[in-house]
Specification:
Length: 366
């Protein structure tokens, strides 16, 4: 009960408030849509929360609060409203004021000339940007030789070939060529994909620079091993200043990469950006952030050692689906189920591993 109050009381109150606002805004049906979108965002964002948790382990308490406050405002207003508007402006050439008026008009996304239609038409560029960013995140994790591996038969060979310098970027470049080959407008997809690669290089590189680490922003296998052995994260210096700022920036870019596809999918449920912001942003983003901080403080990632792996495999699957969606329709349920299955399997196998180790320790003590 204490844990619930500490981490989920405020999100629960905000959820009720958001649903009430939805009711006042558009009646019972709108309130239901807000609740559905919030539940969808939470259920599909566990992989995002797990990866975020590993990053914010390194942040000071002050920056964790910023992640929950200013970061939430960015998630609600920036990622779920302003960013879609900017995407439509960039891909259509329409004036920002015109795009905002279209967004507030709640036009049917299947009808040409509406905000939802323009956003859907921009899906190939969005998928290329998000797909490249997430693919590099996945590859750089898998190409590192880690002390603990989950799918050993696959992760060991990946770690071995990952010793080749810049292999992740070579693979991402190849994936971008494939994405361009199946796109209706290859040049637009290439530019968007290159922007995704550059964004990853900049945020990852700047975070590593100010952290004083050569292992990238997700940390090394030694960092994770130290945490499992009880030498961290409490035993290490928390990041502040510029290092913390770039970690925070990385989290926001990561959140945007996860949220792109969800925002577009939400338009299949409602064409009202206000309702989408309430459901995906206010409810979903707040719960995901609270879950992230809870996992850090409870040591969940160190207790369930395969969660990191399951989350990154889920990210790899999402990246692949985003790239494939440039050339064909991928049902939202497929994207969601893959993440749920992989993370669920990681939790179960971690639990079984813990039981096996506990049994071996007990037998050794007898």
């Amino acid at each position: 009960m204490k844990t619930f109050r500490a981490h989920y009381l405020v999100p629960s109150i905000v959820t009720v408030a958001a649903v009430v606002v939805g009711f006042l805004y558009g009646g019972a049906q709108t309130a239901l849509l807000v609740a559905i979108l919030g539940a969808m965002e939470v259920s599909l964002s566990f992989d995002n929360a797990i990866v975020n948790a590993r990053v914010i382990e390194k942040l000071s308490p002050k920056w964790r609060k910023i992640f929950l406050t200013a970061g939430l405002a960015i998630a609600v207003l920036g990622m779920r409203f302003i960013l879609p508007v900017l995407l439509v402006v960039a891909t259509t050439g329409l004036a920002p004021a015109k795009v905002v008026s279209l967004a507030l008009a709640k036009g049917n996304p299947t009808h040409p000339g509406t905000f939802g239609y323009y956003l859907t038409q921009a899906h190939p560029q969005i998928a290329a940007f998000g797909g490249m960013f997430l693919l590099l995140l996945f590859l750089e994790f898998m190409f590192e030789d880690r002390e603990i591996m989950w799918l050993t038969w696959l992760e060991k060979p990946l770690a071995k070939v990952g010793q080749l310098d810049a292999l992740a970027y070579a693979v991402a470049g190849g994936a971008l060529i494939v994405a361009g080959s199946i796109a209706e407008h290859p040049a637009k997809v290439f530019v968007a994909g290159l922007c995704g690669i550059v964004a990853y290089i900049l945020v990852n590189g700047l975070g590593s620079l100010f952290e004083g680490s050569e292992e990238g922003i997700h940390g090394s296998s030694e960092d994770i091993a130290d945490g499992m052995a009880g030498r961290g994260p409490a035993g290490v210096t928390k990041l502040v200043g510029k290092a913390a700022f770039f970690m925070f920036l990385y989290l926001e870019v990561l959140d945007s990469s996860f949220s792109f596809d969800g925002v577009i999918g939400a338009f299949a449920i409602t064409a009202d950006p206000i309702v989408i912001a309430l459901g995906l942003g206010v409810i979903g983003a707040l719960f995901v952030r609270s879950l992230t901080v809870h996992m850090v403080e409870a040591g969940t990632l160190d207790a369930y050692v395969y969660l990191d792996h399951g989350a990154h495999w889920s990210i790899g699957a999402l990246a692949g689906l985003l790239i494939a969606s440039i050339g064909c329709d991928i049902p939202d349920v497929v994207t969601g189920l893959i993440g749920v299955v992989l993370i669920g399997a990681a939790v179960i196998t971690s639990h079984l591993r813990n039981k096996r180790i506990a049994k071996q320790t007990l037998l050794a003590a007898v």
